[in-house]
Amino acid sequence: MQEVEKLWLSRALKGDADAFGRLVETFQGPVHNLCHRMLSDPAEAEDASQETFLRAYRSLGRYDVTRSFSTWLLSIAAHFCIDQIRRRRMTIVPFEDLPYEEVRDPSPNPEAEVSAWEDQKMVESLLAALNPTDRASIIMYYWYDLSYEEIASALSLTTSAVKSRLHRARKELASTWKDKPRHESATAREKNESPAF
């Protein structure tokens, strides 16, 4: 955390709402991204982000200053998203309904863009099928580079439980990724041939 962010946090802890607003501006990107990856829905992610900051503001008096503020915020976001996913009763989202995030490549290569888009959609659908806590562990580890200890603290787990969950989730993702059918290029389909890999 930068010195200016520490100053805002210090002021926010003393009840300065403007300082907390500065913290929201600083951390809204990471919080929103975590919520989006957890929930796979832009509108739900926006609501979850707002709820995260509302809960953080209300709980600020209980924040442990020895702990990383960003990890504390991500913990609130992850727990809220896990609750939302559980409320859905693990309803599987149809592939067509997953949010589209355009992949930009500086060189115009339509086949590469389509392939990258399909891979991204497949990763999102695989993440959506994971147990919510496993999904949070994977996202915090790979997208936010949090340590096992930070994830354990954020998700109220032991470090060994985090390692176990990550191992199981990686194995499940790898197995499902390998078993998923890959899309052929239009040219290969027209020629009724297998695409070259």
Structural features, described:
It contains nine helices and no strands. The chain is an all-alpha fold and 197 residues long. It has a single domain, classed as Rna Polymerase Sigma Factor, Chain: A. Mean pLDDT is 80; it is low at 184-197.
Précis, in short:
This protein has 197 residues and is mostly helical. It has helices at residues 3-13, 17-39, 42-59, 69-87, 110-129, 132-142, 148-155, 159-179, 186-191.
CATH 4th-level superfamily = RNA polymerase sigma factor, region 2, helix turn helix motif
- Overall 3D form: globular
The number of distinct β-strands equals 0
How large is the count of helical segments?
9
Q: How would you name the oligomeric state of the polypeptide chains in this document?
A: single chain
Top-tier CATH class:
Mainly Alpha
User: In sequence order, what are the helices and strands, one letter per element?
Assistant: HHHHHHHHH
For the largest beta-sheet, the strand count, sense and barrel status come to:
none
At CATH's second level, what is the architecture? Orthogonal Bundle
Binned strand content:
under 5%
Classify the fold: give the CATH topology: Rna Polymerase Sigma Factor, Chain: A
Nearest-integer average pLDDT: 80
Number of domains: 1
Determine the structural class based on helices, strands and strand pairing.
mainly alpha
What is the radius of gyration? 20 Å
Low-confidence stretches: 184-197
Q: How many angstroms does the end-to-end distance come to?
A: 44 Å
